C-alpha cells in the first residue's frame, strides 16, 4: 500500500554492493516522456541502480496502445485545438473519465508482470500513473511508485492518490499536485547530458551552408511538429527582422507548406537541435513539456506563443507564472518579446538550485511532503 505519512522516508535504498532495480514506465505519445525516462535512467544508473525502461504503449493489450498513439498523432496534426477538449472530458470527475480509466486498466496485469522484482517504479506519463496508482491503492503493486511530472502544469489526470511521490520541476507545479491530493517535491529538471549552456562553448552552425543573415528564431512544436507553427512563422516575419527556422519534425506536409513561404527556413527531423538552439537568437515554442526544458537549459532566450490547447495552454501559464518562460498571448506581445530576447544574455535558465532526483529518492535531502 502507499506510504501513509506526512513525511516520506527513502523510496530508494542504495547500499554498497547492491544494485536496486528500477522500472521506468513511459509512453511514447510524443518524444518528451521517453526523453525524460532516458535521463532518469541515466542518473539512476550512475548512482548504481539497475534500470529498465518500459513503454506503456506496448503494455496495453490488443494493440490498444498503438491505436491511442496513432489517434493522438492524427488529432494534433489535423485538429490541434480539439486536443484540449478531448483531454478535459477524460479528467477525474468528467463524463468520460471512468470508461477511459477502465480502458487504461486493461494494462494492469502486464504492468504487474513487467515490474515484478523492482525496488521502485517510476512513471513519466499520466496514463501510466493512473494505472500504477490504482494498483498501489488496491495492494496489487507493493513496490513504491513515483511520478516524474514532465509538464510544467499538472492536470488532474497526472495525479493519483496511490502514487507515493510526485516530482515537479518547480514549486508552482508541486503546489498544483498537492492541491490534487498528491505528495509532491521539487526536483532539478532533467535534460540530456551536455545540453546545459556553458559559457564559451561553441557549436558549429548547422545552417552555415544556407548563409542566413541577421537574427534567427527557432520555432518548435515538439517531436510531432504540432500546433500553429505555420502561423507562428508568418507572425515572426511580419513583426520582427528575425528569420523563422521551423522544426517540422515528423510532419512532411507542414514542411512542404513552409517551404513555399519566402523568408522561412523549414527543417525536417533533426538530431542536432542543441546546436540549432545555440545558433539561434531565441526559441519560440508552444509549451510542450520536455522541449521547454531543453530550450531553457540551452541558454537561448525562450518565448511561448500560440500554445497548443489543453496541456499546452496550462504549461504556458505555469511557465510564465514561475518566471521561466514569458507567454506572448498575441502578435504585439510576440513582437515585444522578440526584441527583448534579441538583447537578453545567455544562461542556463534551469539552474535553480533544487535537489536532484537521487537526493530526493534516497532521502539524503530533507523536504517535507505535504499530503
UniProtKB/TrEMBL annotation:
GO molecular function, one term: hexosyltransferase activity
PANTHER family assigned: MONOGALACTOSYLDIACYLGLYCEROL SYNTHASE, MONOGALACTOSYLDIACYLGLYCEROL SYNTHASE 1, CHLOROPLASTIC
Example of a GO biological process term: glycolipid biosynthetic process
Chain ranges of the Diacylglycerol glucosyltransferase N-terminal domain: 33-185
The keyword Glycosyltransferase is annotated on this UniProt entry: yes
Keyword Transferase attached: yes
Protein's name in the database: UDP-N-acetylglucosamine:LPS N-acetylglucosamine transferase
The family this protein is said to belong to: Belongs to the glycosyltransferase 28 family.
Keywords: Glycosyltransferase, Transferase
InterPro entries: Diacylglyc_glucosyltr_N, Glycosyltransf_28_UgtP
A GO term from the CC aspect: membrane
Taxonomic source organism: Nocardioides panzhihuensis
Pfam family, one: MGDG_synth
Amino acid at each position: 500500500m502507499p506510504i501513509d505519512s506526512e513525511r516520506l522516508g527513502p523510496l530508494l535504498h542504495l547500499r554498497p554492493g547492491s544494485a536496486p532495480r528500477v522500472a521506468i514506465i513511459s509512453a511514447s505519445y510524443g518524444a518528451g516522456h521517453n526523453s525524460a525516462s532516458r535521463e532518469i535512467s541515466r542518473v539512476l544508473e550512475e548512482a548504481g541502480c539497475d534500470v529498465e525502461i518500459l513503454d506503456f504503449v506496448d503494455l496495453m493489450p490488443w494493440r490498444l496502445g498503438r491505436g491511442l498513439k496513432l489517434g493522438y498523432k492524427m488529432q494534433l496534426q489535423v485538429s490541434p485545438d480539439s486536443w484540449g477538449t478531448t483531454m478535459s472530458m477524460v479528467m477525474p470527475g468528467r463524463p468520460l473519465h471512468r470508461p477511459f480509466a477502465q480502458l487504461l486498466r486493461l494494462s494492469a496485469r502486464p504492468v504487474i508482470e513487467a515490474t515484478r522484482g523492482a525496488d521502485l517504479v517510476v512513471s513519466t506519463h499520466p496514463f501510466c500513473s493512473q494505472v500504477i496508482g490504482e494498483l498501489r491503492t488496491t495492494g496489487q503493486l507493493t513496490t513504491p511508485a513515483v511520478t516524474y511530472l514532465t509538464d510544467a502544469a499538472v492536470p488532474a489526470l497526472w495525479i493519483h492518490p496511490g502514487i507515493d511521490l510526485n516530482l515537479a520541476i518547480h514549486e508552482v507545479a508541486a503546489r498544483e499536485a498537492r492541491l490534487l491530493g498528491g505528495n509532491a517535491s521539487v526536483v532539478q529538471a532533467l535534460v540530456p547530458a551536455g545540453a546545459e549552456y556553458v559559457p564559451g562553448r561553441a557549436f558549429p552552425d548547422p545552417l552555415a551552408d544556407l548563409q542566413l543573415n541577421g537574427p534567427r528564431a527557432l520555432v518548435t512544436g515538439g517531436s510531432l511538429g504540432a500546433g500553429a507553427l505555420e502561423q507562428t512563422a508568418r507572425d515572426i516575419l511580419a513583426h520582427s527582422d528575425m528569420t523563422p527556422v521551423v522544426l517540422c519534425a515528423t510532419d512532411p506536409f507542414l514542411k512542404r507548406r513552409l517551404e513555399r513561404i519566402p523568408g522561412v527556413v523549414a527543417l525536417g527531423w533533426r538530431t542536432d537541435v542543441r546546436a540549432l538552439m545555440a545558433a539561434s537568437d531565441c526559441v519560440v515554442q508552444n509549451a510542450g513539456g520536455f522541449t521547454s526544458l531543453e530550450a531553457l537549459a540551452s541558454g537561448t532566450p525562450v518565448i511561448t506563443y500560440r500554445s497548443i490547447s489543453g496541456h499546452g495552454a496550462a504549461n504556458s501559464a505555469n511557465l510564465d507564472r514561475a518566471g521561466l518562460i514569458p507567454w506572448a498571448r498575441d502578435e504585439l506581445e510576440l513582437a515585444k518579446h522578440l526584441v527583448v530576447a534579441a538583447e537578453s544574455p545567455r544562461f542556463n535558465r534551469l539552474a535553480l538550485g533544487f535537489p536532484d532526483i537521487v537526493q530526493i529518492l534516497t532521502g539524503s535531502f530533507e523536504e517535507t511532503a505535504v499530503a
